[in-house]
Structure to design on (132 residues):
């Protein structure tokens, strides 16, 4: 009987850990730094991003869009090219991106901010598929 309870307790703990990621989203953080874009993994964990380049010359910030429809976002960090963004990292590797990210594709439009690792949608209506 005691063993069955401990097994149930362990399953409930695992379920809680998994669900708590949905209830209280993990912050956006830096997953890694690579020298070139082709070194960014095909699968990037949820709420994680990669910096491309070297500390003195970041080229890109790469992550998968939080709308979870599968498109990858590559933000230009080179101030000599437009448009460009700035990225700030906290000591805990939380990401702030400025200005906002405003993606428009053939069938989708997403507009959001990432501030201190928190995602804020600019408009919930803009996340929906665009009608032609």
């Amino acid at each position: 009987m005691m063993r069955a309870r401990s097994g149930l307790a362990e399953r409930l703990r695992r379920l809680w850990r998994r669900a708590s990621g949905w209830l209280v989203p993990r912050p956006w953080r830096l997953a890694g730094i690579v020298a070139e874009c082709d070194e960014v993994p095909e699968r990037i964990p949820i709420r994680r991003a990669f910096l491309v380049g070297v500390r003195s010359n970041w080229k890109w910030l790469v992550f998968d869009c939080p709308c979870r429809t599968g498109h990858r976002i590559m933000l230009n960090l080179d101030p000599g090219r437009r448009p460009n963004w700035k990225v700030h990292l906290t000591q805990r590797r939380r990401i702030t991106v400025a200005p906002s990210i405003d993606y428009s594709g053939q069938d989708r439009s997403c507009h959001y901010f990432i501030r201190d690792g928190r995602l804020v949608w600019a408009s919930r209506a803009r996340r929906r598929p665009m009608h032609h």
Summary: Strands lie at 29-34, 48-54, 57-64, 72-76, 86-89, 95-104, 109-115, 118-121.
